[in-house]
Amino acid sequence: MNVIIIGAGMSGLIAGHILQERGINVMLLDKGRGVGGRMATRRMEDAVFDHGAQFLTARSDWFINVVDTWISQGAVAPWFATHDGGPHIRYRGVPSMNALAKHLARGLDVRLSTTVVSIGCFDSGWNISIEDGTVLTADACLITAPIPQALALAKNLDLDVHPDELESLQRLEYDPCMAVMCTLASASGLPPDGTFRPAGSSCIALVADNAAKGVSPVPCLTIHSTPDFARMHIEEPEEAHRIMVDEAARYIKSEIVHSVIHRWRFAQPSTQHPAPFSTLHSRPPLVLAGDAFGGARIEGAALSGLAAADHLSTL
């Protein structure tokens, strides 16, 4: 069997490794210029920013073992601990979150800057049509993109999914997020762990110091908005940028030298599907996975990728 995975974020990378280890031919397609999805890192001159997911946690036995392996491989390191409902270590990628994604992509056939425009079914498999006119074929297809994007690819297919399941998928929603990246003239003055959550702020959810985190050699910040603020300003990035920079300046002890903004339209699911994956079509298999199934954390995306790979490898 050969499987095409659409999306090279955590779910896709985990599923790809598991399927390949079980002797299944795997190809991953991603429209981005790099792997990792929201495990994203950007460089501006000497400054380096984790501007998507800031950390990962491990709570299930399986993922704890996975993270321990990554630590032994030098791909992950503890960042700081919190005690929200119990002691939880926040882990960071080494040297960045995207570096962890690149680590996971090693040994996999990953095609980047590859936009899938449509999926077609034939008797024994799937035709995957690419923006450049290329058509790829696979015995099975796993889509790990955000659910609205996944369903858009499947909208013209004659699916055998139960109507109730399709309706539950269509109801899944995501929170957007605005991420402002700021270079600083000097150290930020944030707490030692490099994070700050302004109490009562209507626009800023988190300020993260990339230098304190060990990502950047020079002082710089990532500022994440609240979901409501992002929802209100998602089509007004310049206005959101101004408001967030003005407010962030109140919390730090340095001049902001330069800043840019990035919009995450599907930052994290605000609702969750009860199952770890969903099958849109059984024969040939068309499966959905991602953090909307496993939970709105990197671990959730990994668990969903694991479950989808387990399912596909038994067919």
Order of helices and strands: EHEEEHEEHEEEEEHHEEEHEHHEEEHH
Question: In order across it, which strands form the biggest sheet?
Answer: 7-2-1-11-18-17
Count of strand segments? 18
Please compute the radius of gyration using only Cα atoms. Answer: 20 Å
Write up what this structure looks like.
The protein is of the alpha+beta class. 29% of the residues lie in helices and 32% in strands. The chain is built from ten helices and 18 strands. The chain has helices at residues 10-21, 61-72, 97-105, 147-153, 163-171, 210-213, 227-233, 237-248, 291-294, 298-313; strands at residues 2-6, 25-29, 41-44, 47-50, 76-82, 88-93, 110-111, 116-122, 125-130, 135-138, 140-143, 174-184, 195-196, 204-209, 220-225, 256-269, 278-281, 286-288. The strands form five sheets. The protein has a six-stranded mixed sheet with strand order 7-2-1-11-18-17, covered by helices on one side. The protein has a five-stranded antiparallel sheet with strand order 13-14-15-12-16. Strand 1 (2-6), helix 1 and strand 2 form a beta-alpha-beta unit. Helix 1 runs parallel beside helix 10. The longest helix has 16 residues, at 298-313. The model has no long low-confidence stretch (mean pLDDT 95).
Provide a quick synopsis of the model.
This protein has 315 residues and is of the alpha+beta class.
